[in-house]
Amino acid sequence: MRIAIAIHGGAGAMPKSEMTKAAEARYRAGLERSLEAGYAVLKAGGTSLDAVCAAVVVMEDSPLFNAGRGACYNSDGKHELDASVMEGATLRAGAVAAATRIRNPVLAARAVMEKCRHVLLVGRAADRYAGKQGLKLEPPEYFHTASRLAALRQGRAGHHGTVGAVALDEHGNLAAATSTGGYTGKMPGRVGDSPIIGAGTYADNGSCAVSGTGLGEAFMRGVLAHEVAARVRYLKEPLETAARFAIAKLSDLKGDGGLIALDHDGNIAMPFSSEGMYRASIDRKGRRTLGIYR
What we know:
This protein is α+β, with helices and mostly antiparallel strands. Helix content is 33%, strand content 26%. It has helices at 21-43, 48-60, 105-115, 123-132, 146-153, 216-222, 224-234, 239-252, and strands at 4-11, 81-87, 93-99, 120-122, 160-168, 174-183, 201-203, 208-214, 257-263, 268-269, 276-282, 288-293. α3 crosses α4.
């Protein structure tokens, strides 16, 4: 079967020196659940868009990852959630940013793409739109996690993370999805790259699908998701070469992080410049990979 999927649970992973065996086991299990959810969709003949959304929802519902339920706190001690989706066959895209009550921002992003004439909705308008589409809204306490609150109180500003997925379905269509809670101590109203098409998310059947994670401001300034796709499409670079060029550019912009990318031939690249990146994949031959550190 010509299907493939890759996921990430964020770069800038917990320093290896601080990662306990128990914590690593929990993260690995979370990544496996997400990967299997997306792959099950593809094996059943589902679309790449369905697959990336299924994979991301699993991570949004987990308190382990900085998206949905496990989102970081901003400097006001509140949560603001960003997400986007894009399908490679049509170049349709949808996104939400600075949402505060949406249980699964990736599904809200999809609803914007499929049912709204706009690409990006923000703040209360995004929450309101999601509610009108029948998506689950949650009270602020739903997004509370003790570890994220401790990070804020300990002044660990800058802790970032994102979740994402890219997939290729049996029809040869690509899709990408990204979701995040930003970073600990961010200024209220700050929006990163995750909901910005071309920066943190991009998909085009003629090149590849990309989801990024790391310092969002650098991803935006470098338009890094589109950078990978453009190099594959116009320079005819191998996916791995194009992806590594984008990570080098990220470093030039004084940022760190990583990305996952999948091209129309099913090739997968998952480079990163940070100490670690939660990641997993299943390629078109059914080979599985899962890792946190190098």
